């Protein structure tokens, strides 16, 4: 028997009152079987076989439609317990075969002890210093009656014998219009001071007192959301909130506007979406190129791969893509990025206060994460430019739980090279591609797994006899788990590889193939513990295994006379344990203190040379050669790395910050070029090459003003380094079994001041950055052959004291905008010939001290015109056009300067990447 909802509980109360004595009648044994039926049908089957009659409100049963069971000679009460275990329904058996169903709560035979007064043996619990006796949960009370406009929901199911007075409510908060999660939404309880905040996925977890609670959810730009919650046990409630609509000419929503002032660990965050408005070479969007327009980050020259951060070498930057290392994140000598901009979600750069969780590099961390694939609908993004094409697709795999993202980019530049008049360039080739895929799955509300795969490849042949091939591979698997509101964990497994190959096919019989590769595999376990609003901890362990194959050469073709040769591989294990604590000492003073203890083991198998003391290293001074078995420890390095940052608020929009970092780096690049090239190799520390180390001090002031329209920062730094690797003049690096005889290790220092002014509001926005810095190196030794510039400090290859950049965008209308990018840099150092002499009939050139002179200063102006499609909501695709001119002034900026001798005369020549204005047009669209 069921009731209309209007009868509500009054009929149930009447049955209880007219039943006489509340007593259980003798239970019945029945045999029953059902499969994929609704709950209403199950109750009808029991009524047909017994004298029982059920009383309930019909709407309570509507959501239970797929029940199966097989019971042989079982008690009716046991069957009901089993059927109702995954519902919010309880039952009560009355006299004369009446069974009353209740939703959420329980009907009691008698009142609990102490209901009419205190008893000595009653169980007590203290909530906010008020002692209460445990009693049943009653849904109706005065506050509930008065708040008729607020909807009441019931969570969970009352269980007999449950003495708990607090239960956990969890779920997700979403924007009802966009279906996207709402991070940083605040969930508060009206009756007492309890709050929770949603994480980046919109998930929350909060403890409520048993019974009636009033919860309110607030989020920037959203309507306030309030519900009466009667909670009986742990349960889940997902909130869908409407956007707040204001009838104004313009509504500007600002979030985290004071982060630059308030955050303790300073990081530079690049807006991936806004990067599309910055004109770059050939119209290709590049978030890493945008980074070089910020103070303290630069490159050795136009078209140079790698980045120099605060006077550091390019190999001193840790570039991560979803926890996996990318060794060369650029295509075609740095002209294009090797990372798909459509797939990137966040870019965070640490250059002064590197968190202790990161290790293995001295200068900076580029932590790049891909965005999650859509779990709701199929969508995509694509672009078509003059030499590149890009597409990214997203599709749900399990609706609202998992999604797959696949993206690919490719270059079709050969048509440009084939149209040139120069025969040597006309036969050249240049192409590249990269592919990225990501799968993300929300297993439960507490557990999430992500898997990312990335692959890139470059092929180029500037001359007709050599083909260069290089590429990256990165794989990562990550599991995030939330233990409770205060504890979260992450387990990440990653694998990375960088390799290059050279295929030489000349006119003679010395054709060959040469290859190199470095691979690393890392396992990282990390936990975060929020002790309180003022104190949190970040701790964990990590370990990575390096495998370096320094090079092998083999003959190409049966007629080649090249003898096959391979340098022994290198292996190393780098491990670390870290702990960071961030604490608000006062409202104004906050401190982040961390320590990382790292250990590096150089592993066998392999051989190591022991050289005579008191003489320079050379093949002729080898005293002994040691052999090591597989996995035998050759040498161990390590030590503590301290990471400390502090922030003091002088006002709501003004702060000063200071930081200190000590870091170790156990891996080095081997290159005797002034700029990074694809055939640079990496070398692990061993018996003869010690790890690099660095200490950096920084002090700065951060200020927002004019209602947060402007952001200003001024920061100075000083960095000391040891065991920086450099090379002897004319060093032979590739396929050298004894590289230590060609290298020098010395001291480095860098210092400077960085100024950044950003405008974040209005039709005109962008930033102006200026850096004055010096990067110096000292190569001193007791041996003259190993001393450079008399052992004094001299400018490094990437020392450029003045670096000025301006990035601006002006919105003409909602659809049209103008953008510009201007860069000025001091020319980098170079060694010049300063004279010549003749000896025994031969001409010799005399060169200056290393890096004593500089190439001409660099400057470049780019402009762009951006056209957005109309803003109609319901359309197949949303488009975006970019028309740009790169190097609009036609400045012939030198990429490198070199010298040749012709007819006994030394001539200086320079090469440039873009010596003329380069126009471009790119079409982007989303669907």
TrEMBL record:
Under the heading InterPro entries, the entry gives: Beta-barrel_TonB_sf (IPR036942), CarboxyPept-like_regulatory (IPR008969), Plug_dom (IPR012910), Plug_dom_sf (IPR037066), TonB-dep_rcpt-like (IPR039426)
Among Pfam families, the record links this protein to: CarbopepD_reg_2, Plug
* The keyword Membrane appears for this protein: yes
The source's domain of life comes to: Bacteria
Where is the protein situated, by its record's location annotation?
Cell outer membrane
Q: Which UniProt keywords apply?
A: Carboxypeptidase, Cell outer membrane, Hydrolase, Membrane, Protease, Signal, Transmembrane, Transmembrane beta strand, Transport
Asked if the Swiss-Prot or TrEMBL record annotates the protein with the keyword Transport, the reply is yes
Location, primary (coarse class): membrane
* A Gene Ontology molecular function term of the record: carboxypeptidase activity
Membership in a protein family: Belongs to the TonB-dependent receptor family.
- What protein name applies here? Carboxypeptidase-like regulatory domain-containing protein
Q: Please give the organism.
A: Aquimarina mytili
